[in-house]
Write a structure and sequence with these properties.
The chain is α+β, with helices and mostly antiparallel strands. Helices cover 23% and strands 37% of the residues. Strand 10 and strand 11 form a beta hairpin. Bound molecules: adenosine-5'-triphosphate and magnesium ion.
Length: 372
């Protein structure tokens, strides 16, 4: 385990199954004090299970989790702390506010069960309510609040007793689009202001990318990649991450040869058709003959209406327009290239019609070779 003093949550070789089904396989991460880490992945990939193991709501069969200096679970050492003995706050998707209590009593709850003095309860609760902008509603019953206000109460209740870590499980998914964005920004602001270590679960990639210091991308119970949003977006380690994180076109092919950073890849164009030779970067461990997907992001593809004369980098692709949509300030479209579809995005209007022949080019460093 780490010797880094700044580590607030450490999850080490965590395994959790339900019957024969593995919900989380060999999950490892160290989260620093004050860090905002998001678990991102499709439904059923194990995000909630991981979070519930940290909370103490599930018992893993192997591994170790530490919060601060305390080992909260380690089945091999027969250690298991109940949720109330772990220094954590939780916010879930359903607004778990208590309807029979006022806003104040909801938020003060954590301090009361920890037997804080009444002065402390009053001052800390009011201060937290101010932080989330609900101090004027302290005496109102929690049933008489809007969805967004209830979620603020849940947030205030989770941070009021100053836990070391706060766990969020899709807290925004019941809110409408506008409120969702507003609450998202508010959570980030509050998290930075209070400096509390946070683990946030979502299946919404844009939410993960805008909110997080680091993103953990999961699929089928396994971590696929951990990195900051920029890294995850620009350098996905495999096709799953590339596809899940953003719009990207994947062109299947085979590695022909490598020259330093740059690979030449033969992209299959269908049976009996000469493959398309493209140059792109990545796939460090791949050997000639290995299957490679070339990943292209729409914003990295340049559109030409006429065949350009001598593109120096050689990545020139002829195709036919499938369709386009005009989205205010830019145009998105799809271009058919043999059996493939390539997404494009251009920042000006272009009157493209279906089946029109167009030419696409990209710089080798914008094409990413992915080994699977
Ligand atoms: N209590 C349970 N009993 C049996 N299987 C469970 C239980 N909870 C979760 N699972 C299974 O474990 C796997 C992981 O579930 P988990 O709830 O962690 O997924 P998730 O990533 O949070 O998905 P979602 O985005 O849908 O919330 C799933 O296949 C799920 O069916
Ligand atoms: Mg879940």
């Amino acid at each position: 385990m780490s010797t880094n003093n700044n580590v607030m949550v450490s999850i080490d070789h965590l395994h959790k199954s339900y019957g024969l089904e593995k919900a989380v396989k060999d999950f490892n991460i160290e989260i620093e004090q004050g860090e905002f880490v998001t678990l991102l992945g499709p439904s059923g990939c194990g995000k909630t299970t991981t979070l519930r193991c940290v909370a103490g709501l599930e018992r893993p069969e192997a591994g170790e989790i530490r919060i601060g200096d305390t080992t909260v679970v380690a089945p091999e050492k027969e250690i298991f702390l109940y949720p109330e003995h772990r220094n954590i706050g939780m916010v879930f998707q359903s607004y778990a506010v208590w309807p029979h209590m006022t806003v104040f009593d909801n938020v003060a709850y954590g301090l009361r069960v920890r037997r804080a003095s009444s002065n402390e309860i009053k001052s800390k609760t009011m201060k937290t309510l101010e932080l989330v902008g609900l101090d004027h509603l302290a005496d109102r019953f929690a049933t008489k609040l809007s969805g967004g206000q209830r979620q603020r109460v849940a947030l205030a209740r989770a941070i009021c007793y100053q836990p070391e870590v706060i766990l969020f499980d899709e807290p925004l998914s019941n809110l409408d689009a506008k409120l969702r964005e507003q609450m998202r920004d508010e959570i980030v602001r509050l998290q930075k202001e209070v400096g509390i270590t946070s683990i946030f679960v979502t299946h919404d990639q844009s939410e993960a990318l805008v909110m997080s210091d680091r993103v953990v991308v999961m699929d089928k119970a396994v971590i696929q990649q951990v990195g900051d949003p920029q890294e995850i977006y620009a350098n996905p380690v495999n096709s799953f991450v590339a596809n899940f994180i953003g719009v990207t076109s994947l062109l299947e092919g085979k590695l022909d040869a490598r020259d330093g950073e740059v690979c030449s890849v033969d992209v299959s164009m269908g049976q009996g058709v000469e493959p398309l030779r493209l140059r792109a970067v990545g796939a460090a461990g791949a050997k000639p003959g290995d299957k490679i997907n070339v990943s292209l992001r729409p914003e990295d593809v340049t559109l030409h209406l006429e065949r350009p004369q001598g593109t120096d980098h050689g990545n020139l692709i002829e195709g036919n327009v499938i369709d386009t949509i005009y989205l205010g300030s830019f145009l998105e479209g799809r271009v058919r290239v043999g059996p493939h579809e390539i997404g494009i995005q251009i920042d000006h209007f272009e009157n493209l019609v279906a089946d029109q022949t167009v030419y696409l080019s990209f710089q080798p460093e914008h094409g990413l070779c992915l080994a699977n």
